[in-house]
Structure formats: structure tokens, C-alpha cells
Amino acid sequence: MVIEPRDNIKGIVNIPGDKSISHRAIMLGSISEGKTEITGFLMGADCLSTIECFRKLGIKIEITKEKVIVHGKGLFGLSAPSDILDVGNSGTTIRLMTGLLSAQNFSCKITGDASIRKRPMLRVVNPLRQMGANIDGKENGKYCPLYIKGNQLKGITYKLPVASAQVKSSILLASLYADGKTTIIEPTASRNHTEIMLNYFGGNIIKNNLEIISTPVEKLIGQKVEVPGDISSAAYFIAAALLLPNSELLIKNVGINPTRDGIITVFKQMGGNIELLNKKNTWGEPVADILVRSSKLHGTEIGGNIIPKLIDEIPIIAATACYAEGKTIIKNAEELKVKESNRISTMTSELQKMGASIKETEDGMIIEGKSSLNGSIVESYNDHRVAMSLAIAALKANNKTIINNSECINISFPNFFSILNSL
Fold first, then answer.
1. Which of 157, 184, 215 is the last residue of a domain?
2. What average pLDDT does this structure show over 295-310?
3. How many CB atoms lie within 10 A of CB 224?
4. What is the extent of the structural domain holding 201?
5. Which CATH number fits the domain that encloses residue 139?
6. Distance separating alpha carbons of residues 399 and 376, to the nearest angstrom
7. Which strand (E) or helix (H) includes residue 93?
8. Is residue 103 part of a domain?
9. How far apart are CA 281 and CA 287, in angstroms?
10. For 323-367, how does the pLDDT look when each residue is reduced to its tens digit (9 = 90+)?
11. In this predicted model, what pLDDT tens digit does every residue of 213-272 receive, in sequence order?
12. Residue 33: pLDDT band by 50, 70, 90 thresholds?
């Protein structure tokens, strides 16, 4: 993809549905009784991988122009797949499904692409084994492929070593089948879409500060799920409108869940002119329109409890900080090393190619802002968030930028470039 510099960005835009919520709607719809109708579903490669996995488990899922319809078969309605379950590039799919599959009355094998096969799985496998799960895999379950033999599970109390919505959600899905209460204790709050949606479908999840208690229920009931726009996808356009002079952008119907809105907090901290309009609540998920205007940004320090609320947005924050006045320090973000790429290393190396003053640290980055970067040939490392962040950095650069392997963007945002061009 070739990106030419732009003068400004203007317009009204709808962005694709939230990736996290789309995944969970398919999963919970499949193990609920009756139909689940999903509007605003993200038709990205990762979420389509989730659909394919559940189809292999015997669930009928229809995709129409307006919605996705899941014909749920109840908590015990999944059937043994005749084939290996392939999650593609989706870490959410493999980690959450491992919890769900641990309690079924059949065995299966689950794997993914080369990137997924390098990502750590013991963080999920260990607590599930404590619940009685029978899981084997490469290096004793450290990596996939994983071989899961369904087993009767028991409720446990588990203290998460690191705040992780994927690990928490995997345990919560397994807890639906346990023979008693399961308690999860988080070090800091991570995104809570699973808890909200489980209760919406009839689950019994109680949150008490950083403690989450799940009590099994007899059944879940299919629901109508309206998926809000994905704040992680909105982040790229928010950054573009802040950076380019004389810009004004209205992004409609975006999820502003307080466990996900760290990007808004940080951009405002950096001097960003951002307003939330038309706030409402849909089935437990808060939504708003986001109005963004050009702003003179300055550096900031990002770390601690806010990191889980913006872990996916750190690449675009890093790209934005390169143009902000003064120093930006990002710390406590070690989790970036085990994403689709090591996002600390990849963002540092590619922004340096564009002339940025950015230094990699053990748990983040230190960035000295400057007024301009230079167009360059950069690599995506097949990481969708790296590719989109570099595309936004390129809008304000001198001369054009070429992003290699930019098709990886289809994982979460298939129409990213067409929306960008329309603005």
C-alpha cells in the first residue's frame, strides 16, 4: 500500500463493529438456546475464523447482508468436529475456545497460523488444568496445536498474574460447566465484554471490585446483539484528525466501555480536542459518537492501570507521539511483546525508518516528538495494528510511504483504506 501525505481529514464515518464483542456474540450464541441475531458484526478475518470453528462444532450460522444469525444448541449442544479447528490469526478465538472446549464431552485439536503457533498458551492452559481440564500440546501445552479432551470441571479461585481479558474470558466460559462457583481475581481491570454479555444471555456473573464470581446456570438464552463500532479501529481516525491541520471528524456509534476507553483519556491528556456526543447504553455496552478536531499535541507518560484499557492502541499512540511536542514515555506494556508481532520492537524499528526519535525499552518506548517524519518503505510484520498505525503516521510525513504486506489489515478492518480515502 502506498500512502501519500494528506492536508486534512474531514467527514462523518461509521467504523466496523467491535472485534471483541463480535467474537463473543458468536461463542455465546452457539451455546445458548434459540436464535441469536447479531447486527454490526465485524466481517474481519479473525471473527470469520470464529464462525468457521463453530460451524465445525455443528452450529448453523447464517450470514446475510444485514446480520449474522446463530442457531444455538444450548450449553451441551456442540458436537465433535470431524476436522482440526483452525483459528487462523485469532488469539481471541483460540484462547476463549480452549476454555469452552475443555468442558465438552468430546476430544478435538485446535491450532492456528504461524503467528498463533508462537503465541503463549500456558497462561490459559494452567488455570484450566487447575479446573480439571485435560489439555496437551506442543511443549506440554506452552504452544498450539492443543489437544483438548473434554472433562468434568470444578470451580476454582484463580488470581490472574497479569491482567488479561482473554485468560479471564477463557476461565469464565469454562466456569459455565464447573461444579460450583469460580472466582477470578484481577491485578487491574481488563476489558469486561464477556461478563456483560454473559449476564445479558442469562449468566450469573457478579463483579466485586477486582473479583469476578461466576455461578453456573442451567441455560443461556439467545439474544439480539447490536455490536457497536470498535474503539480500537476508531483510534486510527481519531489520531489522523488530531494530527492533520484543519481537520474535523465525527465517528458514529463507537463503543466507549470504560475498560476500553484509555485511548480517549491519553489523547485528551496529550491536548486532543475530543468530545463524546449522543451517549447511550445498548444491552449493557455504552456507546457514543466521537467528535475530533485538529489539536496541538504534547508528550505524556503512559503506564500502570491504564495499560490494559489501551493495550491494542499503543502502536497508534506511539505513531501519534512522534509528532507531539516533547517526550512521551510508554511503560508497563510488556504484553505488547506477545501480540501478532513484538509491537515494541516492530513499531520502534519502522518509525525509526521514517526518521522518528524513538527508543525501545524493556516494557515500552521513549519517544521525542518532532514536527515531521519522512516517507519510507516500511514493514507490517503481518500485524494489522502495526500496518494501520504506520499508515496514519504516513499521512503527515514528507513524501510517500510504502507499507509492505498491508493486506494483514483485513484481520480487523477490511475497509480501512477505502474509508481513509473517502475522508
1. 215
2. 96
3. 14
4. 19-215
5. 3.65.10.10
6. 8
7. helix 91-101
8. yes
9. 6
10. 999 999 999 999 888 788 899 999 999 999 999 999 999 999 999
11. 999 999 999 999 999 999 999 999 999 999 999 999 999 999 999 999 999 999 999 999
12. very high
One-letter amino acid at 225 equals V
pTM to 2 decimals?
Answer: 0.92
Reference 165, options 141, 194, 198; nearest CA is 194
Residues 232 and 361 in one domain: yes
**How far is it, in rounded angstroms, from Cα 125 to Cα 29?**
24
In a domain, 89, yes or no: yes
138 and 101 fall within a common domain:
yes
First to last CA, the chain: 17
366-372-377-381 Cα dihedral, nearest 10 degrees: 30
312 is catalytic: yes
Give the DSSP per-residue string, 255-300.
E--TTTTHHHHHHHHTT-EEEEEEEEEETTEEEEEEEEE----B--
Asked whether residue 222 is domain-assigned, the answer is no
> Which one of the listed residues 18, 86, 312, 383 is annotated catalytic?
312
Examine the domain organization and report whether 264 and 408 are in the same domain.
Answer: yes
Whether 416 contacts 2, CB under 8 Å: no
Q: What is the mean pLDDT of residues 27-47?
A: 97
- Do 204 and 243 share a domain, yes or no? no
Say how many domains are in the chain.
Answer: 2
Q: Are residues 253 and 319 in the same domain?
A: yes
Residue 127 vs residues 131, 154, 155, 156, 286: alpha-carbon distances, Å: 7, 11, 11, 9, 31
Domain boundary among 215, 238, 264: 215
